[in-house]
Amino acid sequence: MIPRSEYLRSIRRHYQRLWGSFDELKWSKGPVEQLPDGFRILKFAPSNRLPLFTFATSGMSEADDPERMECFLLSPSSDLSLCELLTVIAWYHRTNARLGWGHTVNFGRPWLPESLCDQGLFSLPYLDGPELENLDIDGKRTQFLWLIPITADERAFKIERGLEALEARMESSGFDYADPHRHSIADLHDASAG
Question: With contact defined as beta carbons under 8 Å apart, do 31 and 24 qualify?
Answer without folding.
Answer: no
